[in-house]
Amino acid sequence: MTAPKKLFIKTYGCQMNVYDSERMAEALGGQGYTEAKSADEADMILLNTCHIREKAAEKVYSELGRFKKLKAAKPDLKIGVAGCVAQAEGQEIMRRQPLVDLVVGPQSYHRLPEMEEKAQTGEKVLDTDFPEEDKFEQLKRRPKAKRGPTAFLTVQEGCDKFCAFCVVPYTRGAEVSRPADRILTEARDLVERGVREITLLGQNVNAYHGAGANGDLTLAQLIWELDKVDGLERIRFTTSHPNDMMDDLIEAHGTCKKLMPYLHLPVQAGSDKILKRMNRSHTAESYLRLLERIRAARPDILISGDFIVGFPEETEEDFQATLDLVEEVKYGTAYSFKYSTRPGTPAAERPQVDPAEADDRLQRLQALLTRQQREIQDSMVGREVGVLFEKPGRQAGQMLGKSDYLHAVHVANCDRQAGDLARVRIVSSRTNSLAGELID
Ligand code: 5AD
Ligand code: SF4
Predict the structure, then answer these.
(1) 347 CB less than 6 Å from ligand 2?
(2) Is the CB–ligand 2 distance for residue 11 below 6 Å?
(3) Which of the residues 129, 239, 354, 361 has the least number of beta carbons within 10 Å of its own beta carbon?
(4) Check: CATH 3.80.30.20 for 135-379?
């Protein structure tokens, strides 16, 4: 029996990394690790990294630099790097930062226990393979630990789209969907442990085509299977590509009660010239027509998006087309980024936009998106929404939860528990949240 040890995982980037960090904690739980509250008390530190933008990778190096003191004070401390930076720059990390003991790519997390054992003997371990075995099956779950009311569940990984700016097809590899029965088993297990809302995750989640009993299932068919799981109240999914928004999925937004009225559908840009150069294979017009169909199925759906400004060769006129598209769509939430050159991707070789100009465009876009977001949030005042309570608020008697539209909602004098769903009337809108009162 191994002695109890403490593990600290710091997670960067996307929700898939949040899910992966949970799985890594479970895999190392079998090695005697329990959760450390901070890096200071840890026997092992894992950075679960994101490679999508340059700054994210640089952050990893500066964070590692900060661990030098900790390692000097505790020579047995093991430091590992996981995630997409590990996948892309594993050798480079080992070379540049000698205090790293272990580098593990996103496809190899199930091998962490063996890797940890090797690292304990003083060996440096690196695994950035794309192994044949199913990492999801190999990752041991801790027996029936209680969970909070919401959970992520990865159903699909990797991407075959090759957008010209993106490293994902290189770091996460080709698109792979998990078989439906495994997802359903995992979902039932989560529900038994207290989960009421599941967000299905994938880099291209709506391209899901996992094996079912009678052939492959689409994402909509998987959602309908999950709809039958007793005790599961809410289903969400993210992130989707406009070209994979199939008819049955659009229809499910109108007919499946458990599927929440929220859709993250990145467009990236509003200029057809730029979209073409991004290799997005949709136009601004086809995106707008698609949204019309989705809104016809579910008129109140809240739309969220991703944007990149300053993509190579973007002119002021191209940028204006992005602003025009945003004006037309009206986004409830959005994530916008300045283009960041990723070595090895097609756009890296192209003429770059002046960084000051790109900064200015980002500010203008964010000002517009923030205004829209606030208007949509304010328009919730007076409406009745479903709220799933997640935890007590800061004030006594207050509970905090999320609305169907994913807005944070506080309810004062609330007699409900985490995991309860209630109808709530929204009474006011603050900067980043809504306040409401129970209806029944
Ligand atoms: N530069 C800036 N943003 C990027 N994204 C992906 N790659 C880059 C890049 N090289 C953004 C896209 C994507 C989101 C996850 O990150 O908007 O949808
Ligand atoms: Fe990257 Fe494009 Fe795939 Fe999204 S769809 S993961 S942006 S290549």
Answers:
(1) no
(2) no
(3) 354
(4) yes
